[in-house]
């Protein structure tokens, strides 16, 4: 657990962060959002003491971080940033092994760990370990950045706009991978972004910052439904909040058990209501058949063996799940 208690940081006369209170639970995926200059990066860097806090206290598992030795912070906290994270004149393997080397691990143990991490991130050791950062695509370089941050098996991962410089398709893919890593490894993640769709998709808890303070925090659905004020509402997308909420809700939550007509377009149950709505608009229909992941998307008519149920426009529009409830399906 990470606790920030009345944290402040001054640069000259300006408070970049002020009276900030935030508790991040173990295993939580916490995303900080807010307009540029509101203090997100400063907050993140105070957690691993790249920046010292000038007021308040930060505790990790109940211990003030001021008392932590540097190597303890290094081992326990991984840090990923956009672009400039990798050393250009070092190979991929050497970059990933940075922290273990600093911690004095034996070379064989480092080599084994590098192999393990590259496998975890889906990159072939043979192909990539001897390459230099400039020989990698943006997405590959960010994967290596994540592998490096995980090298000493930290329990906390700090990520500052790690996917900000990537094209949308690569970014989507890495977001999926990060969510899957989070489920598998159960790390506490504090992630900074100014991309609201990214924030809504990744966060267990969303923290909206403004002028160095926490303006509102909660689950993505809570904030979309009940923004505390006009600022939060507009940051979350104003009138497009309905579509953002639909993007967070899987078709499986609203589908009815029976198939609709057999010639309807199909959608996979794991897709979002936003995609279902888009498909209805595109095909100019008000109903879809819902299929399992085995069937190919938008193939018509669906193979009956793969049909799980149906979805009507009214199921999307009217069956609203109450905040905090897992499902809102009403057959
Ligand atoms: N090293 C620094 N020296 C002086 N001012 C800084 C420094 N780092 C950040 N600031 C200021 O602190 C405020 C918050 O910055 P930052 O935490 O980087 O915001 P964000 O990441 O939300 O864009 C900004 O006004 C910024 O100009
Ligand atoms: Mg920043």
Please give a handful of descriptors for the protein shown.
331 residues, Rossmann fold, CBS domain Like, 2 domains, six-stranded mixed β-sheet, 23% strand, binds adenosine-5'-diphosphate
Write the layout of secondary structure elements.
Blueprint: E1 2-11, E2 14-24, E3 29-33, H1 40-47, E4 55-60, E5 63-64, H2 70-76, E6 77-81, H3 92-96, H4 98-102, H5 107-120, H6 125-128, H7 138-150, E7 156-160, H8 168-185, E8 188-192, H9 196-202, E9 205-210, E10 213-218, H10 220-225, H11 230-235, H12 241-248, E11 266-268, H13 273-283, E12 287-291, E13 307-312, H14 313-318
Parallel strand pairs: 3-8, 3-9, 6-7, 7-8, 11-12
Antiparallel strand pairs: 1-2, 1-4, 4-5, 9-10, 12-13
Helix pairs in contact: 5-7
The structure holds adenosine-5'-diphosphate and magnesium ion.
The site of adenosine-5'-diphosphate has 10 residues, from helix 1.
Describe this structure in words.
The protein is an alpha/beta fold. It is 36% helix and 23% strand. The chain contains 14 helices and 13 strands. It has helices spanning 40-47, 70-76, 92-96, 98-102, 107-120, 125-128, 138-150, 168-185, 196-202, 220-225, 230-235, 241-248, 273-283, 313-318; strands at residues 2-11, 14-24, 29-33, 55-60, 63-64, 77-81, 156-160, 188-192, 205-210, 213-218, 266-268, 287-291, 307-312. Helix 5 (107-120) crosses helix 7. The protein is globular and about 65 Å long. Residues 40-41 line the site of magnesium ion.
Quick synopsis:
The protein has 331 residues and is of the alpha/beta class. It has helices at 40-47, 70-76, 92-96, 98-102, 107-120, 125-128, 138-150, 168-185, 196-202, 220-225, 230-235, 241-248, 273-283, 313-318, and strands at residues 2-11, 14-24, 29-33, 55-60, 63-64, 77-81, 156-160, 188-192, 205-210, 213-218, 266-268, 287-291, 307-312.
């Amino acid at each position: 657990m990470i606790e920030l208690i009345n944290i402040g940081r001054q640069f000259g006369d300006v408070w970049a962060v002020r009276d900030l209170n935030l508790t991040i639970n173990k295993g939580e995926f916490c995303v900080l959002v807010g307009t540029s200059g509101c203090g997100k990066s400063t907050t993140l860097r105070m957690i691993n003491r790249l920046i010292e806090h000038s007021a308040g206290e930060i505790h990790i598992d109940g211990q003030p971080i001021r008392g932590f030795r540097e190597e303890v912070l290094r081992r326990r906290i991984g840090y990923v940033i956009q672009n400039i994270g990798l050393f250009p004149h070092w190979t991929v393997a050497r970059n990933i092994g940075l922290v273990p080397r600093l911690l004095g691990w034996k070379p064989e143990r480092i080599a084994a760990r590098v192999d393990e991490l590259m496998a975890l991130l889906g990159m072939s050791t043979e192909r990539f370990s001897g390459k230099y950062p400039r020989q990698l695509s943006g997405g590959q370089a960010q994967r290596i950045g994540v592998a490096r941050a995980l090298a000493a098996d930290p329990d906390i991962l700090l990520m500052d706009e790690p996917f900000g410089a990537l094209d949308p398709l690569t970014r989507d893919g890495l977001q999926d991978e990060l969510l899957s890593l989070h489920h598998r490894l159960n790390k506490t993640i504090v992630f900074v972004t100014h991309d609201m769709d990214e924030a809504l998709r990744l966060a267990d808890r969303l923290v909206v910052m403004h002028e160095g303070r926490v303006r509102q925090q909660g689950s993505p659905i809570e904030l979309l439904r009940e923004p505390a004020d006009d600022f939060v509402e507009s940051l979350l997308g104003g009138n497009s909040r309905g579509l953002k909420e639909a993007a967070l809700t899987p078709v499986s939550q609203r589908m009815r058990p029976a198939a609709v007509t057999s010639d309807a377009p199909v959608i996979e149950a794991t897709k979002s209501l936003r995609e279902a709505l888009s498909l209805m608009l595109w095909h100019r229909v008000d109903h879809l058949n819902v299929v399992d992941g085995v069937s190919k998307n938008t193939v018509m008519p669906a193979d009956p063996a793969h049909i799980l149920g149906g979805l009507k426009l009214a199921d999307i529009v009217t069956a609203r799940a109450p905040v905090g409830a897992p499902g809102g399906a009403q057959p």
